[in-house]
Amino acid sequence: MTVNNAAADAISDATLYGFIDWNGDGDFDDTGEATSVAVPDGTVGVVSLNFNVPANALVGTNLGARFRLTTDILALNNNGAAGQANNGEVEDYIITVSATPPLPGTIGNRVWLDEDSNGFQDKGEDGIPNVTVQLKDSGGTVIATQTTDANGGYLFTNLPRGDYSVQVLGSTIPTGMTQTTTYPNTGGDFYNQDQSGTGYAITLGSGENNLTADFGYNWNPTGAVDTGGPANTVASLGDRLWIDSDGNGRQDQGEVGVAGAVVELFGAPGPDGIWGNADDVPYTAGGYNPGRTTDANGNYMFDNLPPGQYETRVVDTTTANYDVNAGQYTQTGDPDHFGTTWTCQRQRDDDSRLARTR
Q1: Are both 111 and 154 inside the same structural domain?
Q2: What is the pLDDT of residues 44-83, one digit of tens each?
Q3: Residues 134, 186 share a domain
C-alpha cells in the first residue's frame, strides 16, 4: 500500500493497520484478520502488510478490507478497525481470494529383472524393456499407458492430484516371468510393489513426483532362487531376439522383436569337444524340450535348468516376421560372445542379440 508519512511534527512515527474479513462474517475479530506494520517518520512510498490467509478463507467471494494509517495505537480487532482515531486516514476496499491452481505431478518408475527374487532393486539388475504399464483412475479405468524403455523405466507426466493405481499389462511381460516377492511398505522406493487387484495404489499430491511404482520379475519363483544351495537351485536362460534398427547393440524403445523364430538350447559339445560346431548336442535331459519359438515381442526363455554350461542358437527363421537367417541381416553385437559357453549358476537375463539390421 502507498503511504505518505511526511508530517512536520516531532512525534510522527505512524502505524499502518490492515483488516480483512476472511470468513465474510461482517467483522474483523477472527484469528488472522488484522495485522500492522510500523511506518517511520518521513516514509513516502509503498509499505507491505503481510497476512497469513487462513484455511477457512472464502474463495471467489467479495470480502471487506480496511486499512488505517495513524499515530494512535489501535487494537488488532473490530474495535481497532471501526473505532475513532485522533489522526490519520482510513480506506476501504473489496478484495477477492483466488485459489492457487494445483501443480501437475508424475508417477513412475521401473520394471526390472529381479535376479535374486528378493523384491529389491540390487546393483546391476537390468530393466525389462518394451513392457506396457497402465495408469488407472480411482475407479480402475485405464486412462494412460507407457512402454518401458531400454532400462525398464517409464513415466506418466502432467497428472492432476488425485487417486491412481498402476499395473503392468501381464501379456507384455516375457513368457514365463512372474512377479517376485512384494513388500507391504507402500511408498518405499526401489521395492517391488503389490499390484494385485486394480494395481498399486497411489494418492498423488499437488506437484508431487511419485517414483515408487517399481515391479520386479523373474522366470523362477522366489522359493526356487538360492534355496538350499546349488543342488536345489534352478536357472533360466534367454531372452529376446529383435531388430536393432540403429545398430547400436542396445534394445531401444520401439525396436520390434523377431516373432516366430526357433531358438535351440545345446547342453554339451559334440565328439570334437568344441562348443559352437555342428555336432553340439541339444539339451534333452529328463525329456527337456530344447526348442523355443519367440513370441510376438521376440522373447523366449529356457527355464528350470540345472546349473551348467549351455549354448543357444537361432536355428530357424523361415516363418518368422523377419527372416534374419536369410543373409540380409547381420549381428550388431553380443556381450556374451555368441558361440561360446556360459556357466549357468542361478538365473540369467541373456538378451540373445543374435540378429539385427545394421
Answers
A1: yes
A2: 889 999 998 888 899 889 999 999 999 999 999 999 999 8
A3: yes
Chain centroid to Cα 133, Å, comes to: 10
Nearest alpha-carbon partner for 233 in 78, 115, 81? 115
pTM of structure: 0.49
CA 128 vs. chain centroid, Å, equals 14
The C-alpha atoms of residue 230 and residue 238 are separated, in whole angstroms, by 20
**β-bridge mates for residue 162, sequence order:** 204
Helix (H, G, I), strand (E, B) or coil at 78: helix
Does 34 lie in the same domain as 51?
yes
Mean pLDDT of 89-108: 90
Residue pair 231/345 in contact (Cβ under 8 Å)? The answer is no
What's the structural domain count of the chain?
3
- Strand 200-204's sheet: what is its strand order? 142-147, 132-136, 162-168, 200-204
Coil, helix or strand at residue 223: helix
